Amino acid sequence: MSSKILKFTLNGEPVEIAVSPEDMLVDVLRDKLELTGTKKGCGKGECGACTIIMDGEAVNSCLVPAMKAMSASVETIEGIGGPGKFHPVQETFMDLGAIQCGFCTPGMIMSSKALLDKTTSPTSQEIKKALAGNICRCTGYVKIEEAVMAAAEKMREKQ
Amino acid sequence: MLQDYLFPETISEAVSFLKSNEGQARIIAGGTDLLLDIPEGKIKTSCLVDITRIPELSKITLEDGVISIGAAVTHNQAANSELIQEKAAALAQAASCVGSYQIRNSATVIGNVCNAQPAADTAVALVALGAVAEIANPGGTEYVPVEKMYAGVGKSTIDSASQLVTRVSFPAAQKKQGTAFVRLHQRKALALPMLNVAAMVALEGGKFLWARIAMAPVGPGPVRALSAEEILKGAEVTPEVIEKAAQSALEQANPRSSALRGSKEYRTSVLPVLVRRALEQAVANAGSSCK
Amino acid sequence: MKEYNVVGHSVRRLDAVEKATGTAGFTSDMKLPGMLYAKVLRSPYAHARILSIDTSEAEKLPGVKAVATHKNTPRELFNTSATMTFTVPPMVPVLDQYIFDNVVRYVGDEVAAVAAVTEKIAEAALKLIKVEYELLPAVFDPLEAMTPEAPVIHESHKKNIPGGEVIQIPYGDAEKGFAESDLIIEKTFKVPVQKQAQMETQAAVAQVGLDGKITVWSTTQTPHPTKMILAKIFSVPESKIRVLNPPYIGGGFGVRIGLSAKAEPIAVALSMLAKKPVKIVYTRKEDFIASDTRHAGYVTVKLGAKKDGAFHAMYLKAILNGGAYCSFSCETPGVLGCMGMAVYRIPNQFYYGHSVYTNTTPSGAMRGFGNPQAMYPIESVVDMMAEQLGMDPLELRLKNIMQVGDPWPLPYKCSSTGLAECIAKGARSIGWEKRGKLNKPGAKKLRGIGMGVGTHCSNAWPWCGDYDNAYITVQQDGSIHLATGVPDMGTGTSTSLPQIAAEVMGVGLDKVSITFADSASTPFTIGSHASRTLYAAGTAVVEAARDARKQVLEYAGEFLKVAPERLELKDSVIYVTGQAVGNDCSGSGVCQTGESERKSISLKELAYNAHLRNKQFIGVGRIVPDNAPPWHAHFAEVEVDTELGQIRVIKVAAVHDVGKAVNPMIVEGQIEGGVLMGIGYALSEEIKYDEKGKQLHDSFHKYMLATADDTPEIDVMIVESNDPTGPFGAKGVGETGLVPTAAAIANAVYDATGIRFTEIPLTEERVFRALAENRK
């Protein structure tokens, strides 16, 4: 198998790693870079658990060849915030009960962040559209939508 | 097995990569269909030629009343483009129905056409819009109507191992022209259509100057409702005329039974409803309403 | 109502930070040194005998470390369900599965498995295994499988009835009851195969030590019973097996009560052969085709009523499709009958039900466990009865619903009910008075409103044994550690159980931590299912905390020289309250004289003081729970596009009597998720099989569960009836959200269209056909 050197920016840091042209980005992130926050729920772009943000857009990393990340800027759940500096949407997911089993959560948060990066005043319909590719079987999406709305408000206040 | 992954910087470089690999290389744009087909063995290729970094292919342009969409334009780019929303609403609507938000961020409109699924949403819209594809061949450039790009169910006339569709072009809707797209589906995302219909109408003095209607999956690719178009041509814009046209759409439709997405009987029964709704919306978008 | 410091508050989940940052541990994320990856070869046929199997080529592939088949794995029969470890006599567990057998009984059945250094190599090796099959006749419908000419699926069960077990529950005299009834309505309903579709597929990592000790990290909802099943399969002492979650599970909904399909035994078998840790993660397709589903089947309801609307007799019958292996196929029809018989005061009832083996994916436990299959039919017939009687269906229900202390067929009491309040609140939310007045003549989109009610259990007794245990240790700094064996599959028990512990111990939630879902470091529990976790494990936690608290106060009594009865433990401080009486020898018999100058001591100081004197406070809770009925009323408003047959749910109002909401935010989340799953059950979710027994809906793309964009307004309201048997008055809530949802929607569709559907899901095509038929 021929291997290629993939160079890209991951959560703000430059990364250089050998990959095969066959590798999918989700597997490179999870197996080679050990960032297992990005989940694999179906491997076919049908559940959104593997959602990451690449050059500003939410994409299913299970359908992105690793090579497509060449020179790109990739954000994963590990890079968007943590204790002391949570992203507003992480805060509201935690505070408003938008998390249950937690398996869809990283992808859901990444889709939400991608939306909020584009607009901090999304309509309910825009939220539903932006998250419709992220399956959640636990919450019925009710508190997730509320959390995104609340995060948007937080972000508007900060602006 | 995949051995290589290339990023050509120009169209001619992309075509020459294909040529030098003698059928072993293949175009990839968004890859959301291709990357499911490769592991399943449906497509065999040793090299992917990624065209999404060729600058001119990422553009949506309007020139002399003609809109062009480059091969790297994603569904979301098309759906969110003000130009498309205003001058080709059917395409914006169709593009916003495909897959999910993430899929639409990767998947390209032209990829949707080249993958040649019978009910590819944007292909249906593009046929109604009268779109023509520009194809870069090793020997030169060729123009083919999107309608003629289907060689069979799931089969495109395009050979992505030797050809590259660079863009699709269609006339922007003018004054008193309207377009619309309607879709019957089991859920609002992550679902293929049970049926989809796109329509473009041109009105004048309370009459239809002409209409173009595409519907799917009622044949190998988007199918023109020619009888309906004929009925509408020169006819008064009335609910009765639209209804009559909608019913006649069945003359060109040959839906198959799908265990997942509706029987032939059901699809046949509701197709006229969708055609009617598409026409009503197109008329409304043309700035007129039924008398 | 009593106000508590921690209980009853919507605090942030204790696992929130880990889950919001992607650092929470799941089985599918695990990696151990030297770990191998497993892939399974599955049957392409619905029913076949394996004549020969040749693995030599696969074994030769570089990177392959072990190949397992029926030839080199234990020939020990088991049942993947946890209940086989706790089937209460005279019932006997139905053991009908091997890890691998020489007969395959459904498309997806396990034939062989490979462990290799990478997943890709394991997959490539599968293609090198040569299997010769002899095809056998197959049957897919339970009614067909009961005919004499149907193929026998298990030689030990000639009539295709798992365990031969037909459940019959007589109550009063049904025959006489119908004879005395003024009105009788009978209808048969068909219910579909629904899939749990939890986000994390079945997964396990097994490590077999050279000393024979086995550790299995997996997605099971029941580590302790799973340990018992594995011990039986591999003939290893239970004390040498440790089963745990790592510690989170990506959802469950019943799909892994017991084994996670066969993930655990396959991983263990391969690890034994390869002498390395082995990881198996089912693909989504495997999860669909080779992992339990909800039981489909046929349910008949015959309801008799007096002219004044009093229900007088009911006959309920269920024939369920059990699929190829038993799993929970004996218990599910039992719960279906019991729950169906428990909602209304009906003096004369009879239930008859059982499952039938077919050559489809095994049916097992799924949220609701038979109850949704009962309530969609029953609540439809109740609405029909209301129409026949000329009564408002809401009033008819209010007239007949079970009240506290009413006799009923269940072996525990109806100890509390807030159902009438649920009905009143839900009716207000949906605007019940608008019912029947929503449509203009000639409208092509018709609106309708409907309702459904129901109950459920709060644990698994009497359908299987049910007991629970917990430890509480006071750490040397006065913080609290709780150990309980129940998993948290997303339902929030790893937060609400510590809330209970904190409340009883008189400390803040920040002082409590929890170890859970580990068979080695926690005492036995039958796990997280049956809406039991908070109710049953919570009761054990209360007991353990009371025990620890008692020890703390006794020690503090000695320290402060007062009787423990005069001490109060609040906010981690022990205070002396009240006045000394005489020698203060009251109560515990611990007699103190000469009251100390100090009137308080912090738990921190006390615990450290105890530590210096060689003592730790260790509370033990060992309980056998009672059982209690949660109640719920759902109201739905729908719009039917009569030209296309499509139904849009506009709103669902879901009001639930949960006894006491220990964490209201978590409770709401349980109900909201259940409601959406119930909407899917009503409208779109179904797995169908083709004529060869292959699943047609074997992916998220094909299986129509709702996305965020398909979610209507869901108005959840909580009613608290404070059940006398539950911890702080709490009852079960995990499953209830989808129990009456399909019924409410089907009744709303009837209100809109005048069509009574006897089969769900109400797909576009089914509704369109019925509308067309109706127009004729």
What is this entry, summarized?
The complex is a heterotrimer of chains A (159), B (291) and C (776). With 291 residues, chain B is of the alpha+beta class.
Strands, helices and their partners?
The complex is a heterotrimer of chains A (159), B (291) and C (776).
Chain A: E1 4-10, E2 13-19, H1 25-32, E3 51-54, E4 57-60, E5 73-75, H2 88-95, H3 105-118, H4 124-131, H5 142-158
Parallel strand pairs in A: 1-5
Antiparallel strand pairs in A: 1-2, 3-4, 3-5
Helix pairs in contact in A: 2-5, 3-4
Chain B: E1 4-6, H1 11-20, E2 25-28, H2 34-37, E3 47-50, E4 60-63, E5 66-70, H3 75-80, H4 82-87, H5 89-95, H6 101-106, H7 109-114, H8 121-129, E6 132-137, E7 140-145, E8 150-152, E9 155-156, E10 164-171, E11 177-184, E12 195-204, E13 207-216, E14 223-224, H9 226-232, H10 239-248, H11 264-285
Parallel strand pairs in B: 1-3, 2-3
Antiparallel strand pairs in B: 4-5, 5-10, 6-7, 6-10, 8-9, 11-12, 12-13, 13-14
Chain C: H1 16-21, E1 36-42, E2 48-54, H2 56-60, E3 64-68, E4 103-104, E5 110-116, H3 119-126, E6 130-135, H4 142-145, E7 167-171, H5 174-179, E8 183-191, E9 203-208, E10 214-218, H6 223-234, E11 241-244, H7 263-274, E12 278-281, H8 284-289, E13 296-305, E14 311-323, H9 331-342, E15 348-357, H10 371-389, H11 393-400, H12 419-430, E16 445-455, E17 468-474, E18 480-484, H13 493-505, E19 512-516, H14 533-560, E20 567-570, E21 573-576, E22 600-602, H15 603-612, E23 618-623, E24 631-641, E25 646-657, H16 664-683, E26 713-719, H17 741-753, H18 764-775
Parallel strand pairs in C: 1-12, 10-11, 14-15, 18-19, 25-26
Antiparallel strand pairs in C: 1-5, 2-4, 2-6, 3-5, 7-15, 8-13, 9-10, 9-12, 13-14, 16-24, 17-18, 17-23, 20-21, 21-22, 24-25
Helix pairs in contact in C: 9-10, 10-17, 13-14, 14-15, 16-17
GO molecular function (chain B): FAD binding; nicotinate dehydrogenase activity
Keywords (chain B): Flavoprotein, Oxidoreductase
Protein name (chain B): Nicotinate dehydrogenase FAD-subunit
Poorly predicted segments of chain B: none
Per DSSP E runs of 2 or more residues, the count of β-strands of chain B stands at: 14
Query: What's the SSE pattern of chain B?
Result: EHEHEEEHHHHHHEEEEEEEEEHHH
Number of helices of chain C: 18
Give the terminus-to-terminus CA distance of chain B: 61 Å
Determine Rg of chain C (CA atoms, Å): 28 Å
Individual helix count of chain B: 11
- Number of structural units classed as domains of chain B: 2
First CA to last CA of chain C: what distance? Answer: 58 Å
CATH architecture of the largest domain in chain B: 2-Layer Sandwich
Mean pLDDT of chain B: 96
